[in-house]
Amino acid sequence: MLSALNGRLSNRLARHFRAAPHRLPAHAPMVSFTFDDAPDSAANEGASLLEAHGGRGTFYLAGSLIDQPGDHWHGLSNDAIIRLHRGGHEIACHTFSHLRAVDLDESAMAREIERNRSHFRGIDSSIKLENFAYPYGLASVWRKPQLAKTFRSARGILPGVNSDVIDLQFLRASPLVNCEIDAAGVDRYFDEAVASGGWLIFYGHDVVDAPSPYGCTPALMRHALTAADKRDMPIVTVAEALRRIGA
Q: pTM of the prediction?
């Protein structure tokens, strides 16, 4: 009886982990640059670098961190959010309080999402949070089905290129973080994306000359942007990438 129970539980978990599969149609490779937690340098230096290369980024924001000091950076301002949004960058969703999905039940997650959406509507009523990123990269098998009903996608921090059949509620993303990758590593991800015709997503935080353990230097970001240019890879937001693959 215990074996049968374990088997049913395993099947249930497997169904959750396979939630939101999507087969990528044949298309040219593309890359998205994403920033988490709202460092002001991402909205300034990071966005400026993207725009210089004809690209736009996706900013996964938690309302509670806006314009707040932190251990490694100061949070971006409401004015910066409006500037990003009106400049074609995507404003996307964390939990409002930056709580981990694994620590939230269904009701608590719903409250966090609605509070975050309300917060950003108050900044600019045209901001619609369509895509989600798991705070700290920690996904929850229990929250995935809930998020699938609410967002077009959810992004983690499992590295690799999104290719062939992808999980829309656990998109792979690779670090653009100096402590974790160098220029050669960035090039390898781009080469993998070209070889597979896949969608490469980078994530990071601050963009400064002396970055936190979670950020990158402008030099490393410039290298990644130049790598995209050399391979004729479009630099698109997560929302635009999903549109291109019909998701």
A: 0.90
